[in-house]
Every structure is written in structure tokens, then in C-alpha cells.
Amino acid sequence: MKIQLIHPPHPTATDDKLDAPLGLLYVAASLEKHGHEVLVTDLCGYKNPMDWRSGVKFGCDIYGISSYVCTMDLSAEIGRMCLEKNPDAWIVGGGANLTGFVETGQWEHIPDIYNSIIVGAGELAILDLIEDLGNGGKPDLTYEHPLSRDLDEYPNPDYELLDNSDIREYHRTIGGDHSISILTSRGCPYRCNFCGLQKQSRTVRYRSPEAVAREIQDIIDRYGIRAFNFQDDTFIIDKKRVRKLMDLIGPMGITFRCLGRAGLDTYEDYVLMKEAGCQSVAWGIESGSQKMLDRMNKQVTVKQNYEVIEWAKKAGVLDRIFLIVGFPGETRETLEETKQFIINSDPSQ
Yes or no: is domain 2-152 CATH 3.40.50.2300? Predict the structure, then answer.
């Protein structure tokens, strides 16, 4: 079958072309492996709706469209553009936003343009849908097919499938160098109350250090890119695995950034990663109030949040924090605690 996977623009973003659509590229690689004709169209960077329309290709059997909270209406509009060019096509929606709505039964928020919704990872679920469609039956409304725990079973993203973008055209830099995003694992063992995908993220799945190192070397060889943004929810869960990965990528002369976890990371972790090329670590600090951290079920203390920032600075790694303001239960007093945390910890970003 012929499939076009479309990543919507984010017109209100300061810069909506920071990273290639990694999720769609994984799905595309799975489709290509199974003999389907597939292309990925990233509409980020295009502000004019006429450009969005011209990005939709004629003659596709399936159009798969990513949807975010901020692109719900726009993604649905792109779906209507697809039907204008091919009224018989099957319109498929996917992404964390739609997955969250399906899991919580909030169907009223899902546009009716979609014939089917992919819930969770799409690599295998889209193949199930295609099988049903190819057999002449009516596909289901939702498809969910969890991945194996061993992510080495699945092909790497193929950036050559981007039909309207070059991977070197994306804007994210690390230490001043053009970068590319990469996943070494999927999932998170924690259960923060603000997370919309607790069900999907419950199982942590890994790629082997060797497979990650091979992909990095391939990107270096093909594109000359040596800066990497590890997008794992929590990079240092399996410390033995991380140590092995650092041993493999250290000699490559790359730089990278990642997401850490207070209460799990140690100073020694940051020293090891720094030696292997780590430029920055970011954490979901969320709040400087223990009351709010407990309400969020962060399973961390304010003291531990202070420690990781201190350790990163000591190891020579740029420290970056994320905060949540206005979580249910927030008061002037808890906001003041967060303000004091920022002043006292003095994060770099």
C-alpha cells in the first residue's frame, strides 16, 4: 500500500522545526521493512495553509497524521485536505494526545475525521490496520499493539524517507553544533500524577548499547552530525547499560544531552557521562515545595533536587530544569518555595 505520514506544523511555536518527527520515522521504517511505499512529510516551518495542502500527496491509500494538544484542529484540517485529494483514503490519527483521550474515554475531544486511531507506539499497530484494510474488511476504530521489550527488533528511523526536508535543515543545536534526536529506550517506571500516558509508559523497553552505538556511527557517516539529543524519558534507569553505552560512544567524539532523574542519578554518573561527551542534563524538578512534589507523586525530595543540580555543576555538565506552576493544590506559599529553590540552586537554564 501507499502511505503518507504527516507531521503537522505548530504555527504558534517560537520555532516548530527543531527536531525531525522521530515517532513517524520509526513507523515509516517499519512500513518500509514490510514492503509498503511510504513517505514522511513534515509540515513544520510552513505557515501558509496552501503549503500544507500542497504537501498532501495524491493517490495514497492511507494518510497517517500526528496530533498534539496544540494542533488538534489543524491536524483534523489536514485530514480533510487528504480526503479532498483522495476521497477513498483511510485517515489515521496518532500521537500521545489522541492516545491519552482514548485511554481516558474522552472521545468527545477526538475529531471525527479519523477512521482509525493508533493507540501508543505505531510500528506494529499500523501493520495490523493495513492487514485488516487489505483483507477487504472494515478496520477497527482503534489499534494498539505494544512493542517487544527488546527494541533491537525494530528498524532505525530512516531519514531518507523525509520527502520535503533534509535532516540537516532542523534547527536544534547542542553546544553550538547541529544535532539529531535519538531514542535508546522507551517508557518510564515512575507514576507522576500529571503524566497523561501512565498506561503506555508503564513498561520500560530498551535498545542494546551496541545497537545505539551503531546508529550513532551510521548518522556520523551519512550526515556528519556529531551532536545527539537523547529523548529517553529517564536516561539513567539501567546504570549498567548506561556505563556500557558510555564506553562505546566515548571514543566517537560526540556531544549529547539527556534527561536525568533526581533520587536516581549520582555525581559519579555525571562524571562518567561528561567524559563520554555529555553537554547537559535536564530534570523535571517541577516544584521547590515538598508538599507539591508529594501531590504530584514525584517520589523525590527537594533535597534530592538540589543535589542533582549541584552534582552536574561540579561535574562540568550544563544543568537545565523544568517546572510546573499551578498544579492542583498550588498556593502562594508553595510558589514562594519554588522561587527560593530557583534562587538557591541557581540552575543554568
Answer: yes
